[in-house]
From TrEMBL:
Alphabetical UniProt keywords: Developmental protein, Disulfide bond, Extracellular matrix, Glycoprotein, Lipoprotein, Secreted, Signal, Wnt signaling pathway
GO MF annotations in UniProt: cytokine activity; frizzled binding
Presence of keyword Manganese: no
SMART domains xrefs: WNT1
Record GO biological process: canonical Wnt signaling pathway; cell fate commitment; neuron differentiation
Primary location recorded for the protein, binned into one broad class: secreted
Protein family (similarity comment): Belongs to the Wnt family.
Compartmental location: Secreted, Extracellular space, Extracellular matrix
Protein name: Protein Wnt
UniProt cross-references to InterPro entries, sorted A to Z: Wnt (IPR005817), Wnt4 (IPR009142), Wnt_C (IPR043158), Wnt_CS (IPR018161)
Task performed by this protein: Ligand for members of the frizzled family of seven transmembrane receptors.
Species: Chelonoidis abingdonii
Keyword Flavoprotein: no
Length: 345
């Protein structure tokens, strides 16, 4: 179905491409990838063609998918839904295909991950079809000279749009889920674009800054994850509305402010994620470690959904009594002590 394509694609890429050889500039490497692309289940036809035409970029796509998964798990590590694997290749679980705000975050971080990784590969000279962004030239309004290797984000975004968005577009965009997914895909890419920054280098005698050359770089991917997590918290619930011949997603309540292209949107409310439900792809929170003194989502009361928690003692080993010895080493002892660990019932 069109609404599952993005998630399945990225889940498959992290698994399937991990067993493929890294791209080789030789013809043999290209043939290996070409046949491998055809054998990947879950890819749309156009995605297979992109994989074959731009085999060199597939390592970056895989890396982008891994970035997305790692960042998702970091951002949600202390939440009831912690972006963990439930069944094999379903990296984000079945809940990701239900039109929830969790699905919105997954699509956004995934499309951003691919755009980020492809752009980074361009700047490093790893891809034949792109390089640094040389369009920015001349003197800026602030008086510095544009030069150096600016990140070619326009290429990374275009690649992400062509590859990641394709499953939604290949089935048409008449379904509400497809509209939602495409919007969130683009919001993820805009999180990178809107946080591009300028780096500069001074040139002159004895370190003076007579001439300053600058270039544009992407923010760290952790910054992108932080931005999208904020968008997740403020995501807008929407529903489809026919406007003339077009189908649009509008806020479900008139009290909600209109969302922008940078915001995340979702169609259905999330489950509470408290109890394991394999049919819905919910892992539950039983057995999760919680913080007994916290009143936030990682606290035992909220994370354990009122079921209570178990307390056990665990031994921790830490370096201690460290001393500096001339010259030049630091020697430490190993200290063992017991700590309380709390896990949800």
């Amino acid at each position: 179905p069109s609404d599952t394509g993005n998630i399945w694609t990225l889940s498959l890429l992290t698994h399937c491409f991990s067993s493929l050889p890294s791209y080789s500039w030789s013809m043999a490497g290209g043939v290996t990838y070409s046949s491998a692309c055809e054998g990947l289940k879950g890819l749309a036809e156009e995605q297979v063609r992109i994989c074959q035409r731009q085999a060199e970029a597939m390592d970056s796509v895989k890396h982008g998918a891994e970035l997305a998964i790692e960042e998702c798990q970091h951002q949600f590590h202390n939440r009831r839904w912690n972006c963990s694997t439930l069944q094999g290749l379903q990296v984000f679980g079945k809940v990701a295909i239900q039109g929830t705000r969790e699905s919105a975050f997954i699509h956004a971080i995934s499309s951003a991950g691919v755009a980020f990784a492809v752009t980074r590969a361009c700047s490093r000279g790893e891809l034949e079809k792109c390089g640094c962004d040389r369009k920015i030239r001349g003197v800026s309004a602030e008086g510095f000279q544009w030069s150096g290797c600016s990140d070619n984000l326009s290429y990374g975004i275009a690649f992400s749009q062509a590859f990641v968005d394709n499953p939604e577009r290949s089935h048409g965009v008449s379904s509400s889920r497809a509209l939602m997914n495409l919007h969130n895909n683009e919001a993820g890419r805009k999180a990178i674009l809107s946080h591009m920054k300028v780096e500069c280098k001074c040139h002159g005698v004895s370190g003076s800054c007579e001439v300053r050359t600058c270039w544009k770089v992407m923010p760290p991917f952790r910054k992108v994850g932080n931005v999208l997590k904020e968008k997740f918290e403020g995501a807008t619930e929407v529903h489809p509305k026919r406007v003339g011949s077009r189908k649009l997603l509008v806020p479900k309540s008139s009290r909600f402010k209109p969302y922008t292209a940078h915001d995340l949107v979702y169609l259905v409310a999330s489950p509470d994620f408290c109890d394991r439900d394999t049919h819905s792809g919910v892992f539950g929170t039983s057995g999760r470690q919680c913080n007994r003194t916290s009143h936030a989502m990682d606290g035992c009361e909220l994370l354990c959904c009122g079921r209570g928690f178990r307390t056990a003692q665990a031994e921790m080993v830490e370096r201690c009594s460290c001393k500096f010895h001339w010259c030049c080493s630091v020697k430490c002892k190993q200290c063992h002590h017991l700590v309380e660990v709390h896990t949800c019932r």
